[in-house]
Amino acid sequence: MGGEPNRWEDVYQSKAEAETSWFEDRPQVSLDLIAVTGATSDAAIVDVGAGASRLVDCLLEEGFRTITVLDLSETALAKARARLPKDAPVEWVVANVLDWQPSMPFDVWHDRAAFHFLTDFADQETYLRVMDRALVPGGHAIIGTFAPDGPDKCSGLPVTRFDATLLTERLGPDYRLIRSLMHDHHTPWGSVQRFHFGLFKKN
Ligand SMILES: C[S@@+](CC[C@H](N)C(=O)[O-])C[C@H]1O[C@@H](n2cnc3c(N)ncnc32)[C@H](O)[C@@H]1O
User: Where is the Methyltransferase domain (predicted)?
Assistant: First the structure.
């Protein structure tokens, strides 16, 4: 289930942003894929398992005004929130995505390195049901996970690794793969982690 909430709280309480392996100064791959969706500034975007990611900062800079940022860790969200103006148009949600009941429909669902913590098939199914309920018809899902030749653990937790074929199969026939790419993420200490990103369009 992506680990207990306290585990992630511990991570974010004990480490600075740039001490986490997944830190990115600028989440360029995510931004590029969001651009491919054609989303305009009135699109509703949710970043699931966002942690303290700077994606929200960049989306605000790009003019998006309907942004939801969700994570298990309150501390992670507080770190992101502290960087932004108090009146930034962001809904902050401390929740397990598996239990989340979105309060509005979304045009874009973004997840970098949260879905891959779901190693139980049943949890993956629950996640995908939540995602499907959240997304409008014709909406887009961007899911970044470790690739088959990427690490098999992150933050001490096992992960499920995907490539385009595995992820497409997992999302099922209601989602069409629009773009797939492999990305070498360089951790703050210089090691390389191979990610796969899939961009899907919902029927
Ligand atoms: C490896 S970090 C990636 C953070 C962020 N997406 C980024 O790219 O910087 C994984 C994040 O997923 C969150 N997470 C893991 N399982 C989750 C779940 N079931 N529901 C919500 N968030 C979850 C963790 O709290 C953590 O912040």
Answer: 45-139
**Could you report the per-residue pLDDT of 13-43, keeping only the tens digit for each?**
999 999 999 999 999 999 999 999 999 999 9
Q: Whose CA is nearest to atom 7 of ligand 1?
A: 53
Element (H, E) at 61: helix 55-61
Q: Which atom of ligand 1 is nearest to the CA of 112?
A: 6
Question: pTM (2 decimals)?
Answer: 0.98
Q: Ligand 1 mean position to 190 CA, how many Å?
A: 21
For residue 130, report the distance from its CA to the centre of ligand 1, in Å.
Answer: 16
Q: What does the domain layout of the chain look like in residue ranges?
A: 5-202
Task: Report the CATH superfamily, name and number, of domain 5-202.
Answer: Vaccinia Virus protein VP39 (3.40.50.150)
